[in-house]
Amino acid sequence: MIPLDLIQRTAEVLMEKAAIEIPQDYLDGLKATAAVEDGDLSSFVLQAMLENYEAAKEDRRAMCGDTGCPRWYVKMGNEARLEGGPVGLEAALRRATANATNNIPLRPNRVHPLWRTDHDNNVGINAPEIEYAFEPDSDWIELTTVHKGGLFGTDYRMLFPSDGIEGIKRFYLDSLVAFGKRGLACQPAIIGIGLGGSKDTCMVLGKRAACLRTVGDRNPDPKIAALEEELKELGNSIGMGAMGFVGKSMVVDCHIEVGYCHTGGMQMSVHAFCLSSRRAVARLYANGRVEYRTDPEWFTQYQRRETVEWNAHSHQEESA
Question: Which residue windows are transmembrane per the record (predicted)?
């Protein structure tokens, strides 16, 4: 059984890591972007951010003044057992969020939408968000925290089958241009795209594609993977760079996730992660062992399954 105090302690460590230590995959992607950027202001912003990341690690301070809205992604092995059950887990994550807000510190961004009530701890009604997934034949739990900007950098459109790939490209470019011109996102960023599902599923898939996949990762469907590469290059060809200035560094990477949708539609969402790309992951075992990493490894074969029944052996044969 995985104890609650281990969950809370680990969650607090993850909050600090996400706020301060930029993942290496994103840092490498950002350096590659900076190496080819030739826009004066865009280059200045990129170099300033790279220097800021180093200062944040040295000083053990949050890398950005706006620390976003902390959220949790929990993946539970089917055989995992938790002290206090799911209710105890959620209580531990809420305590960890409140403690980390005070101790790191993080900016307390969460307020009531109408009364603007602020508890100064990033905790409130439906905050922080806690989303779940499950894995067969496993007895661990994985905690992923993402500190995602909570204002802009997201758009949605109901497309139709006749819009096709060209329609996807048009909406994608419309979104990036709006993000850049109106200051609605902090570029360059990982762009996540959700295709299909219902509207709420489409939005969830797009945000997870942006926040829970690493730079260089590709969808296992080769045609979708090719589209990811094409959209990355397309996004960097519109004349915008860091923070919307003139340049060619709008997109560090592009990720696409899909869900089966109504036959008459093709929903699409576009999400820009933050220039700081804040995420951290840990796997917890009942014996007290904790393994930290920065790749959420969220989209497993099980998460992308499309059959009625799950058979790992037959799925691996199909993928071979």
Answer: none
The Cα–Cα gap between 104 and 200 comes to 33
CA separation for the pair 227, 221 (Å, rounded): 10
Only one residue has tokens 């959420």, namely 296
CB 244 within 8 A of CB 175: no
| Whole-structure pTM value | 0.94
Could you tell me the two tokens for 298?
A: 């969220």
Amino acid, res. 319: S
Please check the confidence at residue 320 and state whether its pLDDT lies above 70.
Answer: no
Are 242 and 185 within 8 A, CB to CB? no
- 47 three-class SS: helix
Report the percent of the chain where pLDDT is more than 70.
98
CA-based radius of gyration for the chain: 20
In the numeric block, the tokens 């539609």 are attached to: 265
| Mean of pLDDT over the chain | 94
CB proximity list for 214: less than 8 A, separation 6 or greater: 23, 25, 26, 294, 295
Distances (CA, A) of 225 to 37, 196, 219: 25, 16, 5
User: Measured between alpha carbons, how far is 252 from 212 in angstroms, rounded to an integer?
Assistant: 14
Write phi, then psi, for 292 (nearest 5 degrees): -100, 145
Q: Are 306 and 225 in contact (CB under 8 A)?
A: no
Report residue 48 as tokens: 């300033």
- Tell me how far apart the alpha carbons of residues 85 and 64 are, in angstroms, rounded to a whole number: 35
Show the CA angle centred on residue 216, arms to residues 305 and 189, nearest 5°. Answer: 105
Q: Is pLDDT of 319 > 60?
A: no
201 token code pair: 């599923």
Mean pLDDT of the 148-162 span: 90
Cβ(117)–Cβ(111) below 8 Å = yes
Taking the CA atoms of 150, 151, 154 and 155 in sequence, report the sign of the dihedral they define: positive
